[in-house]
Protein backbone atom coordinates (compact mmCIF):
# COMPACT_ATOMS: atom_id res chain seq x y z
CA UNK A 1 0.00 0.00 0.00
CA UNK A 2 2.97 2.32 0.59
CA UNK A 3 3.65 2.62 -3.15
CA UNK A 4 0.02 3.35 -3.89
CA UNK A 5 -0.44 5.78 -1.01
CA UNK A 6 2.83 7.70 -1.30
CA UNK A 7 3.90 7.34 -4.93
CA UNK A 8 0.78 6.99 -7.06
CA UNK A 9 -1.42 8.91 -4.58
CA UNK A 10 -4.86 8.25 -6.05
CA UNK A 11 -7.84 10.24 -4.83
CA UNK A 12 -10.34 8.47 -2.58
CA UNK A 13 -12.76 7.82 -5.45
CA UNK A 14 -10.10 6.57 -7.91
CA UNK A 15 -10.91 3.12 -9.28
CA UNK A 16 -7.93 2.72 -11.64
CA UNK A 17 -4.44 4.15 -11.33
CA UNK A 18 -1.35 3.55 -13.38
CA UNK A 19 2.05 4.62 -14.56
CA UNK A 20 4.14 4.43 -17.70
CA UNK A 21 7.54 2.80 -17.75
CA UNK A 22 9.61 2.96 -20.92
CA UNK A 23 12.91 1.38 -19.91
CA UNK A 24 12.36 -2.29 -20.63
CA UNK A 25 14.95 -2.56 -23.36
CA UNK A 26 18.19 -4.48 -23.58
CA UNK A 27 20.62 -2.95 -21.12
CA UNK A 28 18.03 -2.71 -18.39
CA UNK A 29 17.05 -6.39 -18.61
CA UNK A 30 19.41 -8.94 -20.11
CA UNK A 31 16.70 -11.35 -21.20
CA UNK A 32 12.98 -12.09 -21.17
CA UNK A 33 13.27 -13.99 -17.88
CA UNK A 34 14.77 -10.99 -16.07
CA UNK A 35 12.07 -8.75 -17.49
CA UNK A 36 9.35 -11.22 -16.49
CA UNK A 37 10.76 -11.49 -12.97
CA UNK A 38 10.57 -7.71 -12.64
CA UNK A 39 6.99 -7.59 -13.94
CA UNK A 40 6.01 -10.34 -11.50
CA UNK A 41 7.65 -8.31 -8.73
CA UNK A 42 5.34 -5.45 -9.70
CA UNK A 43 2.44 -7.88 -9.36
CA UNK A 44 3.59 -8.73 -5.82
CA UNK A 45 4.00 -5.04 -5.02
CA UNK A 46 0.68 -4.06 -6.62
CA UNK A 47 -1.62 -7.11 -6.33
CA UNK A 48 -4.02 -7.41 -9.23
CA UNK A 49 -1.99 -5.10 -11.46
CA UNK A 50 -2.91 -5.16 -15.14
CA UNK A 51 -0.26 -4.79 -17.84
CA UNK A 52 -0.53 -3.02 -21.17
CA UNK A 53 2.68 -3.88 -22.96
CA UNK A 54 3.17 -1.73 -26.03
CA UNK A 55 5.69 -2.56 -28.73
CA UNK A 56 6.69 -0.63 -31.80
CA UNK A 57 8.30 -1.55 -35.11
CA UNK A 58 12.05 -1.54 -34.39
CA UNK A 59 12.92 0.30 -37.61
CA UNK A 60 10.47 3.11 -36.80
CA UNK A 61 11.41 3.27 -33.13
CA UNK A 62 15.12 3.48 -34.03
CA UNK A 63 14.41 6.80 -35.79
CA UNK A 64 12.80 8.32 -32.69
CA UNK A 65 14.54 10.80 -30.44
CA UNK A 66 15.09 8.18 -27.74
CA UNK A 67 17.12 5.93 -30.04
CA UNK A 68 18.64 8.12 -32.73
CA UNK A 69 22.16 8.09 -31.22
CA UNK A 70 22.20 4.41 -30.21
CA UNK A 71 24.90 2.55 -32.21
CA UNK A 72 22.80 -0.61 -32.75
CA UNK A 73 19.26 0.58 -32.10
CA UNK A 74 17.42 -1.73 -34.52
CA UNK A 75 19.04 -4.88 -33.13
CA UNK A 76 18.45 -3.81 -29.53
CA UNK A 77 14.84 -2.96 -30.30
CA UNK A 78 14.23 -6.24 -32.14
CA UNK A 79 15.45 -8.17 -29.11
CA UNK A 80 13.42 -5.95 -26.80
CA UNK A 81 10.23 -6.61 -28.79
CA UNK A 82 10.95 -10.36 -28.58
CA UNK A 83 11.53 -10.12 -24.82
CA UNK A 84 8.35 -8.11 -24.27
CA UNK A 85 6.32 -10.63 -26.28
CA UNK A 86 7.80 -13.54 -24.32
CA UNK A 87 7.19 -11.72 -21.03
CA UNK A 88 3.56 -11.06 -22.01
CA UNK A 89 3.08 -14.76 -22.79
CA UNK A 90 4.64 -15.84 -19.49
CA UNK A 91 2.64 -13.30 -17.48
CA UNK A 92 -0.55 -14.60 -19.09
CA UNK A 93 0.44 -18.18 -18.26
CA UNK A 94 1.21 -17.28 -14.63
CA UNK A 95 -1.51 -14.73 -13.90
CA UNK A 96 -4.25 -16.02 -16.17
CA UNK A 97 -6.40 -14.26 -18.74
CA UNK A 98 -7.51 -10.67 -18.41
CA UNK A 99 -4.30 -9.35 -16.88
CA UNK A 100 -2.05 -8.64 -19.88
CA UNK A 101 -2.63 -6.87 -23.18
CA UNK A 102 0.16 -6.81 -25.76
CA UNK A 103 -0.35 -3.93 -28.17
CA UNK A 104 1.46 -2.72 -31.27
CA UNK A 105 1.85 1.02 -31.71
CA UNK A 106 1.43 0.87 -35.48
CA UNK A 107 -1.91 -0.95 -35.14
CA UNK A 108 -3.57 1.17 -32.46
CA UNK A 109 -2.27 4.49 -33.80
CA UNK A 110 -3.90 3.67 -37.14
CA UNK A 111 -7.06 2.23 -35.57
CA UNK A 112 -7.96 3.30 -32.02
CA UNK A 113 -10.43 0.41 -31.74
CA UNK A 114 -7.39 -1.87 -31.38
CA UNK A 115 -6.42 -0.04 -28.19
CA UNK A 116 -10.03 -0.01 -27.01
CA UNK A 117 -10.19 -3.81 -27.41
CA UNK A 118 -6.88 -4.26 -25.58
CA UNK A 119 -8.06 -2.14 -22.66
CA UNK A 120 -11.39 -3.96 -22.53
CA UNK A 121 -9.51 -7.29 -22.46
CA UNK A 122 -7.93 -6.34 -19.11
CA UNK A 123 -11.19 -5.08 -17.67
CA UNK A 124 -10.51 -1.36 -18.00
CA UNK A 125 -13.75 0.66 -18.14
CA UNK A 126 -13.24 2.10 -21.61
CA UNK A 127 -14.79 5.31 -22.87
CA UNK A 128 -14.06 4.95 -26.57
CA UNK A 129 -14.67 8.62 -27.40
CA UNK A 130 -12.16 9.67 -24.73
CA UNK A 131 -9.58 7.20 -26.09
CA UNK A 132 -10.04 8.55 -29.62
CA UNK A 133 -9.80 12.15 -28.41
CA UNK A 134 -6.64 11.39 -26.42
CA UNK A 135 -4.98 9.64 -29.36
CA UNK A 136 -5.75 12.61 -31.61
CA UNK A 137 -3.68 14.87 -29.34
CA UNK A 138 -0.02 14.98 -30.41
CA UNK A 139 2.50 15.26 -27.60
CA UNK A 140 5.82 16.91 -28.32
CA UNK A 141 8.57 15.25 -26.31
CA UNK A 142 11.89 13.53 -26.66
CA UNK A 143 14.69 14.88 -28.79
CA UNK A 144 12.39 15.82 -31.64
CA UNK A 145 8.81 16.87 -32.11
CA UNK A 146 7.92 13.97 -34.39
CA UNK A 147 6.17 10.96 -32.89
CA UNK A 148 8.98 9.83 -30.59
Mean pLDDT: 89
Helix content: 40-55%
Number of discrete domains: 1
Please, how many helices?
7
Order of helices and strands: HHEHHEHHH
Number of strands: 2
The fraction of residues in strands falls at 5-15%
C-alpha Rg, in Å?
Answer: 16 Å
The residue ranges in which pLDDT falls below 50 over 5 or more consecutive positions are none
The major beta sheet can be summarized as: 2 strands, parallel
Distance between the termini: 33 Å
Instruction: Output the strand order for the largest sheet.
Output: 1-2
Structural class: mainly alpha
Looking at the structure, what is the overall shape? globular
Describe the SSE topology.
Layout: H1 2-8, H2 32-45, E1 51-55, H3 58-62, H4 73-95, E2 100-104, H5 105-110, H6 112-121, H7 128-135
Parallel strand pairs: 1-2
Q: How would you describe this structure to a colleague?
A:
- The protein is mainly alpha-helical and 148 residues long.
- It has one domain (25-135).
- Helix content is 49%, strand content 7%.
- The protein contains 7 helices and 2 strands, in the order ααβααβααα.
- 14% of the residues are buried.
Give short descriptive properties of this protein:
mainly alpha, 148 residues, 2 strands
Amino acid sequence: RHVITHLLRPKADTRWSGFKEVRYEIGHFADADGLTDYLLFLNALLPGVRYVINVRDPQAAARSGWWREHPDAVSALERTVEHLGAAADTLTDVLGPGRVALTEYEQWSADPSVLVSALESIGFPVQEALIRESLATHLEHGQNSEHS
